[in-house]
Amino acid sequence: MTLTGAAAAPFCSWLIAAYLSRTVAGLSGEDPGSKQNISRRRSRRKHRNAQGAVNGGSSLVCSYSAGPVGSLVGLCGSGLSELGSCLSFEACPEYQSASWTPFFGEGVMALRPKPLRAARRHPKTAAQGKAWAIALQPLREPPEKKKLMTKERRVVVTGMGVVSCLGHDPEIFYNNLLEGKSGITEIENFNCEDFPTRIGGEIKSLSTDGWVSPKFAKRMDKFMLYLLTAGKKAVADAGMTPEVMKELDKGKCGVLIGSALGGMQVFNDAVEALRVSYRKMNPFCVPFATTNMGSAMLAMDLGWMGPSYSISTACATSNFCILSAANHIIRGEADIMLSGGSDAAIIPIGLGGFVACRALSQRNNDPAKASRPWDQDRDGFVLGEGAGVLVLEELEHAKERGAEIYAEFLGGSSTCDAYHMTEPHPKGTGILLCIEKALSQTGVKRQDVNYVNAHATSTKAGDVQEYRALMQSFGQNPVLKMNSTKSMIGHMLGAAGAVEAIATVQAIRTGWIHPTINVEQPEKDVDMDYIVSGKKQRLNVKVALSNSFGFGGHNSSILFAPYRESTEN
Hints:
alpha/beta, 14 strands
């Protein structure tokens, strides 16, 4: 744009404004040239000039004068004041004689405007070339009013569903944990004679009758069968009968259940079929392999139209899902959320993959003692499978429908080690940060945390780093107790956090803490006064912490407590 064009733009804006003001005045029946109106305009101009001087020239000032050649010069503010001598815009004859019907439509602009008679009405101003100040300010829209939440929305647990090697009911599952019973056995679902690891927390049988449609049960991956079964059992456990379901606002009910690996068997079968021909591939192989489809299928089955998706953060998946689901409720986006995780990796490709990582125990001759967190003889974790789902619900919504409240979810935190794909940070920096953030964000006092369901997978590096971080945070609490659920069910990957959250809630409900089995020669740095081992212990849980960490350095810590009407103290 040329310099002349740059100066012309503000001039044209002023000219249009002046033109409209005169035309509208003519339509309103006022005589712009009357003495009364002239007096009013002079008074307003004096006020605006004074205001412009006070504002330091911030208002837009457009000056025009009638020179010897009848030119109009537009000046905009002090920044262009020096350009007045070199800019002249002569009024063409067509402008003087035109009968305008231009761009503002028929109506106002269709009328012939009265000629500008500034020089005649303001002879002194025009003759002297003084400025006629017009303050043009943008229209300010009223600020949008934000809806403030006047009451805190609390999140409670009202239902649970589990599928595991120790049972498919929360009561049976936790009773087996309290008895110290191991679910680790030899793998039977496929021939693994050639594998160095031949044991796992395998689910020997599961009936999906009444939970999953037969036509889908034949085609779905086991991770999805576990997810749907545990999810529907959680809904039933929460007392959501068909009559209750009809009364729910489906738009505020959601599903957030994740998976670390998704439908590995379905995907593997598709690859094998492709070796023959693409025509042999299962048409459902892609959707049934994706991690989000479990949540989607469950939402479709229930007709729930709220937030529905999945999160995949390796072995920390469930905790991330639970934390995110609770946030949906806290923000008012949902009243009920099904949340947790599911995985089914005890298949040839899953077992082989973890063997290649050198992460698995090879204690094949004694499966029940293979998973041994904090013990000096541990040689890796034991692969498990299954699903865990919790019903998270807004407190007032739960009370209104008369639901039984199992525990209250207080919140949590997540961090990243930013260190290594599979190894934890050697100083436990990310874990410690995660625990401290969880306490800070929930407002929980560290002395109130007296139970920790540890991640404790039975790996050489991971167990010690977590223990040190826990001692750094809670080591001054002499009544602190911790245990490892994985010592009896193995590592369920993306489902681990949810199943351990169920164990944590059951500890709150029953007042009993299950033991950590196989800790026969504890690490030198581990103080066994803090570890529940050998047999169950009685504990009145004040606040419970559940940890989950995953490949990629993903860390998560969530907090539960007994439900009380008031949480002021």
